[in-house]
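S.,

Sequence below, as promised.
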Amino acid sequence: MNPLGDDQYEASLNVGVGSIKASYKAKITLADQTPPTSYKLTGEGRGSPGFVQGEALISLSEDGDKTTVQVEGDAQVGGTIARVGQRLLGTVNQRMMDNFFNCLKESVAARK
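The prediction came back faster than expected:
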């Protein structure tokens, strides 16, 4: 991710749904920030197979010595991935979120 300023970032994403693989150029924005409890992520991306737009509300709360993260989101997908992989999108979304949080957990553990 490359910063664009004013809580905006540019990202390159390589995403696969089943046998459909795609590259996207995306713009990610942080909004409605209420540190340290919540913020909204909005994003839009375009690539050769179509587009992706979405937003997620991220809420953080203390739970003893741990932080609980709650994510509520919505996305719209168009193009080849939407037509061919529509039934797989929920599973792929869950796997991507799991991968993200596992990576975050490993990064935090490595800093201790």
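The first strand starts at residue 2 and ends at 5.

Coffee later?
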